[in-house]
Amino acid sequence: MNQIKLHTQMVKTFLVFMFFSLTVGCASLLPPERRVYPKNPIPLPNGMDIHDWMDTKKKQFPDHLRSNSPYGKVYKIMYFRKEKTFLGSYISCSAYIRQIDTKSIELVELATLINYSDYTKSIGRYNKGGDLGPMSEKERTEILLPCIEEFLTPPN
Predict the structure, then answer these.
(1) What's this model's pTM, rounded to 2 decimal places?
(2) Which domain holds residue 127?
(3) How confident is the model at residue 9 (pLDDT cuts 50, 70, 90)?
(4) In whole angstroms, what is the distance from residue 27 CA to residue 46 CA?
């Protein structure tokens, strides 16, 4: 009798799982080789290393850029686009930027983020969102790469 109840419960669990899988769907990130900046390596301006370059980016985008340097010549950035989406949320992108030689850097582990709150507030519990993608080539082309390109624009 207990075996029949266990079997029935397992079948019900499996059916519920299949129902949610089919109705909700699953998304997956593009493979790592598609989450790198296609124009790598990026030349650094003459006489600059990654730290000097990041200092100019922080001055260029004081309200739109968050960054930290977890080690050596590597930065983790989160850049908030200047314009909101039509729904009022902020699209932003994140990347690891690393200096690969004395004259160039590369951007890897690119991801898009959606932030439903004000980007000027502290990052943490106020921002709802997180690394989302790109989930498809279309998202990579239409959301992620324009965000990265905006971040990479030279200062005026």
Answers:
(1) 0.73
(2) 28-152
(3) low
(4) 42
